[in-house]
């Protein structure tokens, strides 16, 4: 069994300083390597970025854990000129969750008292936010990635910076596609914790047993297969923000554990009797009506009270006066520059259809419609023929259909008046997803099952087609 | 059943990154799990797309690789290819372990060492 040393720094202050603790809270990934580039130490941020914990990484070659571009192409630690002085460069890594993360890396040699090199120290800064800055910079009518100028959203924009500066728990409610995740990330990025990690957990994505180990971590030997200590997402989010999305799907047993954490800010990993003090800000989001869930005894009332310190309700798109037009132009600009197309705008007929539509899928649906239109259109102006068929087919009888398909619209009037929850959205008879599925089927039939040809017809890449086919279950 | 395995290679080890590998070894195992053929394919340039294309055209059953992006991992899985990812270490040992049925995703086959000493 590998024993990880916990060294002391002596001679700096009278009492020895715990090396591990000193670096664990710094919001930059730090690794110490020996002269053979073997990992001697990594701090908590490094663990969070790569997905490997110190016990897992200890003694292994740096490239095995870091998995960066430089490891293969131009590792500065192997370059005799570069390895004698600090070297900083942009790079990317693929972490254990298979995410590609742009980073800025700095590698510097470390020396003993006589000036002999004894190893390297490596730092890792997450550049994701900076890389996205050019898209985000100076959007009028926007806050981070959220775009809108309606009075309803204006109110949200006014609240967000104030809430971001506080450290209170926040509950974000709103229908699906209204941008709850974006708001949570924006709050983190504009808060004092911006340099700390932003860790997101989807409470509905994992079974209860896995979720507990994922959120709170586990102790080696806690259950079959727990061969290493796992820090858990809460510990990885130390000094940052933890975002619990779909909190309404959190099993009751875990709600109790979360409640305990909110009370004393100490987490107990699965199988451990020792607690860890964690400093995290909690943001939760849900599209469910938590008050109703409390009444149905599916959600703990005391947890709701603790989460509901500040609540942000994101209005559905149909209630955001004038934002549909703004968002249509915003997304069209984005997609046409992404696709290298020169689309100037929408024809008046197309605009009529688009502005009249109710968008039950909210901004996500609007964005998909614009993406579809931008893909299909080979002309500078998008007309009704470039819009998904379900929009134009239903245009005539939409008025009556809206009445039937949007029962939650009436509920929401009350909700917004009293600042209450958002009821769950209802499933709709005809959606964009359905239309896209039909479109794929049609293209595949026309191409006699040849996916390359179908992808070409649709104006997509092969990988986009397979991803969407997988999404709609057409790959069976 | 005859099995075909592909291992993206960097020097003598499993390439730490799928998308940056410029070489791949294709191994054919007989029905009796014996090594029948081993050949190296040199790619004109490192690219996940090209490597995926090679995997499909060569009718590979299993890919043993290091870090791979989610998109390509899902693509290969969708194509019913077994992907044993996050494997690090000498490719010969990875292959040997695969043939012994003891290789798992995430296995690091290097010895833990600090300053030249086993830890």
Could you characterize the architecture of this molecule?
The complex is a heterodimer of chains A (476) and B (119). With 476 residues, chain A is an alpha/beta fold. Chain A has 23 helices and 18 strands. Chain A is globular. Chain B has three helices and eight strands, in the order ββββαβαβαββ. The A-B interface holds A 2-3, 34-36, 38, 40, 58-61, 63-64, 67, 69, 71-73, 93-100, 463, 466-467, 470, 475 and B 10, 15-17, 19-20, 49, 66-71, 73-75, 78, 85-86, 88-89, 106, 108, 110-116, 119.
Secondary structure blueprint with pairings:
The complex is a heterodimer of chains A (476) and B (119).
Chain A: E1 8-9, E2 17-18, H1 19-24, E3 29-34, E4 39-42, H2 44-50, H3 54-57, H4 62-66, H5 69-73, E5 87-94, E6 100-111, E7 117-126, H6 128-131, H7 133-136, E8 142-143, E9 146-147, H8 151-165, E10 170-174, H9 180-189, E11 198-202, H10 208-216, H11 232-236, E12 241-245, H12 252-264, E13 266-267, E14 276-277, E15 281-286, H13 290-295, H14 301-307, E16 310-314, H15 323-338, E17 345-346, H16 348-356, H17 362-376, E18 381-382, H18 389-393, H19 398-405, H20 407-418, H21 432-446, H22 451-458, H23 462-471
Parallel strand pairs in A: 10-15, 10-16, 11-12, 12-15, 17-18
Antiparallel strand pairs in A: 1-2, 3-4, 3-7, 5-6, 6-7, 8-9, 13-14
Helix pairs in contact in A: 8-9, 15-17, 21-22, 22-23
Chain B: E1 3-10, E2 13-14, E3 23-29, E4 35-42, H1 48-57, E5 62-64, H2 70-78, E6 82-84, H3 91-99, E7 113-114, E8 117-118
Parallel strand pairs in B: 1-5, 5-6
Antiparallel strand pairs in B: 1-2, 1-3, 3-4, 7-8
Overall outline of chain A: globular
Question: What is the beta-strand fraction of chain B?
Answer: 25-35%
Largest interface: A-B, 31 and 31 residues
How far is the first residue's CA from the last residue's CA of chain B? Answer: 41 Å
Per CATH, the architecture of the largest domain in chain A is: 3-Layer(aba) Sandwich
Q: For this entry, what is the oligomeric state of its chains? A: heterodimer
Can you give the helix content of chain B as a percent range?
Answer: 10-25%
CATH topology name of chain B, in short, is: Nucleotidyltransferase, domain 5
Gyration radius of chain A, in Å: 26 Å
Count of helical segments of chain B? 3
State the CATH topology of the largest domain in chain A. Answer: Rossmann fold
Count every helix of chain A, treating DSSP H or I runs of 4 or more residues as helices. Answer: 23
Number of domains of chain A: 4
Helix content range of the residues of chain A, please? 40-55%
Give the CATH H-level superfamily of chain B.
Dinitrogenase iron-molybdenum cofactor biosynthesis domain
The mean pLDDT of chain B is 93
């Amino acid at each position: 069994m590998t024993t990880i040393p916990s060294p002391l720094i002596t001679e700096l202050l009278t009492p020895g300083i715990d090396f591990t603790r000193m670096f664990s809270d710094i919001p930059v990934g730090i690794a110490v390597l020996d002269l053979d580039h073997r990992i001697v130490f990594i701090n908590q941020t490094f663990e969070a970025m790569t997905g490997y914990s110190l016990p897992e990484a200890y003694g292994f070659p740096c490239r095995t854990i870091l998995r960066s571009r430089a490891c293969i192409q131009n590792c500065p630690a192997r370059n005799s000129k570069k390895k004698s002085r600090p070297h900083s460069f942009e790079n990317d890594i693929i972490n254990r969750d298979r995410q590609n993360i742009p980073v800025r890396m700095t590698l510097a040699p470390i020396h003993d008292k006589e000036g002999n090199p004894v190893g390297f120290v490596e730092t890792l800064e997450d550049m994701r936010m900076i890389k996205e800055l050019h898209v985000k910079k100076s959007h009028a009518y926007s806050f981070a990635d959220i775009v809108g100028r309606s009075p309803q959203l204006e109110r949200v924009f006014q609240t967000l910076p104030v809430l971001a500066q506080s450290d209170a728990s926040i509950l974000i409610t709103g229908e699906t596609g209204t941008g709850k995740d974006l708001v949570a990330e924006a709050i983190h990025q504009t808060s004092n914790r911006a340099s700390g990690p932003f860790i997101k957990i989807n409470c509905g994505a994992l079974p209860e047993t896995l979720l507990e180990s994922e959120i709170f971590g586990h102790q080696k030997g806690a259950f079959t297969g727990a061969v290493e200590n796992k820090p858990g997402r809460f510990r990885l989010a130390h000094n940052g923000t933890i975002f619990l999305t779909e909190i309404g799907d959190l099993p009751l047993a875990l709600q109790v554990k979360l409640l305990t954490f909110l009370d004393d800010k100490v987490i107990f990993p699965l199988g451990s009797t020792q607690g860890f003090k964690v400093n995290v800000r909690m943001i939760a989001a849900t599209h469910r009506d938590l008050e109703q869930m409390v009444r149905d005894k599916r959600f703990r009332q005391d947890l709701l009270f603790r989460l509901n310190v500040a609540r942000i309700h994101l209005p559905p798109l149909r209630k955001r006066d004038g934002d549909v037009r703004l968002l249509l132009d915003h997304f069209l600009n984005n997609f046409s520059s992404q696709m290298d197309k020169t689309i100037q705008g929408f024809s008046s007929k197309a605009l009529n259809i688009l502005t009249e539509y109710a968008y039950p899928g909210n901004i996500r649906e609007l964005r998909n419609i614009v993406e579809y239109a931008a893909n299909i259109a080979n002309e500078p102006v998008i007309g009704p023929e470039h819009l998904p068929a379900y929009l134009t087919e239903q245009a005539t009888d939409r008025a009556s259909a809206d009445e039937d398909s949007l029962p939650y619209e009436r509920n929401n009037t009350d909700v917004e008046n009293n600042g209450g929850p958002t009821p769950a959205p209802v499933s709709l008879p005809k959606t964009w997803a359905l239309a896209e599925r039909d479109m794929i089927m049609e293209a595949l039939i026309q191409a006699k099952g040849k996916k390359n040809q179908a992808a070409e017809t649709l104006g997509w890449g092969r990988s986009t087609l397979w991803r969407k086919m997988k999404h709609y279950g057409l790959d069976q | 059943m005859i099995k075909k395995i592909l291992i993206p290679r960097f020097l003598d080890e499993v390439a730490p990154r799928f998308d940056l590998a410029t070489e791949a070894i294709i191994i054919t195992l007989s029905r009796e799990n014996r090594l029948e053929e081993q050949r190296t394919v040199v790619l004109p340039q490192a690219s996940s797309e090209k490597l995926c294309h090679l995997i499909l055209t060569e009718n590979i059953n299993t890919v043993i690789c290091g870090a791979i992006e989610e998109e390509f991992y899902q693509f290969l899985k969708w194509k019913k290819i077994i992907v044993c990812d996050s494997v690090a270490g000498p490719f010969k040992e990875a292959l040997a372990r695969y043939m012994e049925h003891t290789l798992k995703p995430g296995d690091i086959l290097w010895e833990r060492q600090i300053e030249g000493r086993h830890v």
